[in-house]
Amino acid sequence: MRTVEVIVDVPAHQTNQTYDYLIQEGQRVEVGMRVHVPFGNRNVEGFVLGIKEDAQEADFKFALKPVYAVLDEEPVLTHELIELAKYMCEQTASFMINALQTILPAALKVGRKQAVKVKTQEMVVRVIDGVVQPKAKKQFEAVEFLLGQRLPYSATELRKQFSAPIVQSLLQKGAIVTEEQEVLRSVYNSSVYEEYVKQPLTAAQQVAFDAISAGRESGQAMLLHGVTGSGKTEVYMQQIEAVVASGKQAIVLVPEIALTPQMVQRFVGRFGEAVAVLHSRLSNGERFDQWRLIERGEVKIVVGTRSAIFAPLTDIGLIVIDEEHDSSYKQENMPAYDTREMALWRADFHHCSVIFSSATPSLETYARAQVDRYLYVGIHERIAGLMMPEVKVIDMREELHAKNLSMFSRDLLAAIRDRLDKKEQIILLFNRRGYATFVKCRECGYVVECPNCDISLTYHKTSNKLHCHYCEHQEPLPQTCPNCTSPYIKLFGQGTQRLTEALQQEFPDARILRMDRDTTSQKGSHQAIFDTFSNLEADILVGTQMIAKGLDFPNVTLVGVLAADQTLNFPDFRASERAFQLLTQVSGRAGRQRAGTAIIQTYMPDHYAIQFAAKHDYQGFYQEEMKIRKQHYYPPYCHVSSLKATAASAKEAYDLLFAIYQEFKDDEAIQIYKPVPALIARVNNQYTYQCLLKYKDKKHTLARLYDLQQKYYKHNKVSLSISV
Ligand code: ADP
Ligand code: ZN
Ligand code: ZN
Which amino acids does the record list as binding Zn(2+) 2 (predicted)? Predict the structure, then answer.
């Protein structure tokens, strides 16, 4: 008899174990397909992970139940993706079903209610000449037109061009034949992209290119470390060209949706239709179609954000992770996988290389390049001999002394005015969205907070209301203090929207664009803002950190950073590293074709992260930061994981973590800290506690963390999440 091993989707029954079912007469089933099976007294869906061709009844403890239905005609999972899911489970202490669901697009997951439909369209598939006489002028024209087109031709288009009644007559006369045909939703229109011309490499780029070619021969992972504007993209694009020419495929990952328009433009502009795009803003249908396009082998290059690493390519020749240091490559929720690890695994499977590209590599990656685990490839000068931007650090305390209470230092204002006069562009980074960060009473100090979360509310001018950024809560702006009834309740703090207004007041004629989460909530809005700015239809781009990375606007000669300390003050051992990266990246947006300047406003001008960023000194920063990491025993000197427990009562959350703490504290291989409230301890009336683990032995710890998951996932009051 034939049986299948199935991993089922039963939230209350998590395990990495498969269950056996009997294949029935006439069922065609393969590994990687989805099936409907009985489980307890229910029907559930699951993935087939194995098939036993000649199983014996004696092999099983119980009488096997049958597979009710096979849901696919073709497997949705390749052998490789199943193995990758297993690896993901090990790396994140997660369950197999969750790993598989994470890898697949919504349309191919199991247990989903809304099915994603295959889109069809009526297409003209045949045109029969001679049926329509020339005297039926319009109809004749339509036939003539179709004879000059490549079939199938969209019937909808034809109706638009020649009217519906004309097409109807053609159909009735039998002059054309139409058919419903499947169409794949496209996510870009390749004809609107200008060609992105291949550039002859500079000497420095050529050296890097050759080093990468050599590294690729042996399938080595590499760090491509080049200052901002050194032309790293061109180098790896030409590598990809070579990969595609050899018949293989490539994946290019970008950290954030904000960067995809530019990357898509460059790749489609050079490689045309061979490019698929996968990112979180696609609809389920679009994502499904991109996935199928890739699966059918019609795509050579996949460009996308984090989850594009799971693209079902079958013959990968190169994986590029652009801005590899970016924190978005780490998934926050379980399975909390690290895209860089997934990339290394797939590269190993395909015997190809991964290129980690960055101007500011993460400490972990740079440290690996130092000990030759990654091949180090450096480009240390900008394209066309351009200088690095000059960076001025402005001490905002001195502005206060000079009685300048505005958000802008005098130097920054002067520089903006100068660039506006010269018709050059400006980027201003302000790491805070919204209008004002909070509402505070001047008399009693009361700050209006969300009733559900431990977080102050933010005023949004567009709605004229206070919003919570963590839950849905909104409320009107209070007229008097809810605490002491004083009328002196005021908006404090500043956000991108407020900044934009203040800027407009200073420079009434300037055309200002804003890019933050509020202005980019709609599909295509990143692209629109990007296009407007690069077509020189705006003078100043104001934005949150999403404008800091990678973007290449040749006409920008001034970059201003308004609250450089924001990132530094964040309670995280990576805070200095993040601040250094952000400042280096954003200054790097200046002067990509002419000399540029960056102005950093800060209250901590002497902080080493700011000082090294101002000097473009990655090495210096690395040395200093490594000393601190070593001293305090933080990565890359060890691994860290965090455990989070969330519950409706703080006590329950704490108790669970404390029990775990007791369990782990005698393990000599693991250093565990006592549970503490999470940074925002209450969100939507759910309380979160967390505790930190440090360890060197990854395998041992991961195994223990997996056991922990097994033991506590069923805890019905507290949810436990692990981030490795
Ligand atoms: P990076 O990613 O290293 O910051 P980019 O790849 O964005 O740099 O390149 C910076 C600019 O230099 C881009 O506008 C790019 O088109 C241009 N560029 C890259 N390589 C060359 C080259 N070999 N010759 C001329 N221009 C180049
Ligand atoms: Zn008050
Ligand atoms: Zn809230």
Answer: 450, 453, 468, 471
| Per-residue pLDDT reduced to its tens digit, 282-296 | 888 899 999 999 999
Q: Is the pTM of this model over 0.80?
A: yes
Chain centre distance of CA 261: 13
Residue 204: nearest ligand to its CA?
1
Is residue 238 lining ligand 1, measured as CB closer than 6 Å?
no
Distance CA 544, CA 538 (A): 17
User: CATH no. for residue 538?
Assistant: 3.40.50.300
Question: Regarding beta strands 65-66 and 19-22, do their DSSP bridges make them parallel or antiparallel, or are they unpaired?
Answer: parallel
Does 233 contact ligand 1 (Cβ within 6 A)? yes
DSSP character string of 427-449: EEE-S--SSBSEEEETTT--B-B
Same structural domain, 415 and 507: yes
pLDDT band at 434 (very low <50, low <70, confident <90, very high): low
Tokens of 277: 């795009």
Residue 226 beta carbon below 6 angstroms from any ligand 1 atom: yes
Domain ranges, residue 652: 639-723
Residues 537 and 418 occupy one common structural domain: yes
- Whole-angstrom distance, CA of residue 578 vs CA of residue 568: 8
Q: For residue 462, report the distance from its CA to the centre of ligand 3, in Å.
A: 19
Q: Are 519 and 385 in contact (CB under 8 A)?
A: no
Residue with CA nearest ligand 1 atom 9: 231
Q: Find the 432 Cα to ligand 2 centroid distance in Å.
A: 25
In this structure, the number of other CB atoms found within 10 A of the CB of residue 298 comes to 12
Instruction: Enter the ipTM.
Output: 0.95
Q: Helix H segments across 436-571?
A: 496-506, 525-534, 565-568
